[in-house]
Amino acid sequence: MQTIWLSGAEWFAILRIGLGLWWLESWRHKDKKDWFAGGGVTWAAGVAAKHRWPFVRRSFDHLVKPRPRLMAYVVAYAELALGLGLIAGLLTPIALVGGLVLNVIYLVLMIHDWAEQGQNLMMALISAGALFAMSWQTWSLDNALGLFP
Predict the structure, then answer these.
(1) Distance (Å, whole) CA 52 – CA 40
(2) What crossing angle do the helices spanning 92-109 and 114-132 adopt, rounded to 10°?
(3) In the chain, count of helices (H) and strands (E)?
(4) How many CB atoms lie within 10 A of CB 129?
């Protein structure tokens, strides 16, 4: 692929690294004290309770609500792991799929908030593009270690 300045693979590596920085910022900007005390799950419970799709309310009530502390840690540290994995290019295909799944979950939960939808749609699109372009083949630990040829 002909591009200006960098190769197509290098541009996708930049997108992957940028997406990793975005996930890292998502983790960094959380008020950890409030988040781990249940603030994030309490906020999400309010969103889920008013959701127009009954399966979202039921799923949240069944999976998340009974485990607020665990789920707070799962979400926060998933965002941290995604960020670090994508930046370093370590287990990149797994991180891209995991990020795509997390963005779809956020997208479905926040179906009423168009500002959040834009962010989640962009992140999901970058994840899909980086996954199908096999962005771990450039500037990554995966490539250096020969993990995903």
Answers:
(1) 20
(2) 160
(3) 8, 0
(4) 16
Convert the pLDDT of each residue in 40-70 to its tens digit. Answer: 899 899 989 989 899 999 999 999 999 999 9
Cα distance between residue 6 and residue 113, in whole Å: 36
The verdict on pTM exceeding 0.85 is yes
- Please say whether the beta carbons of 15 and 126 come within 8 A: yes
Structure confidence at residue 2 (pLDDT): 73
Residue 32 to residue 73: CA distance in whole angstroms = 10
Buried b / exposed e over 4-28, threshold 16 CB at 10 Å, is eeeeebebbbebbbebbebbbebbe
Cα separation, 3 vs 43, whole angstroms: 44
Q: Tokens at residue 52, please?
A: 């127009």
User: Residue 29 — pLDDT band, cuts 50, 70, 90?
Assistant: very high
| Dihedral, CA of residue 104, residue 109, residue 113 and residue 115, to nearest 10 | -30
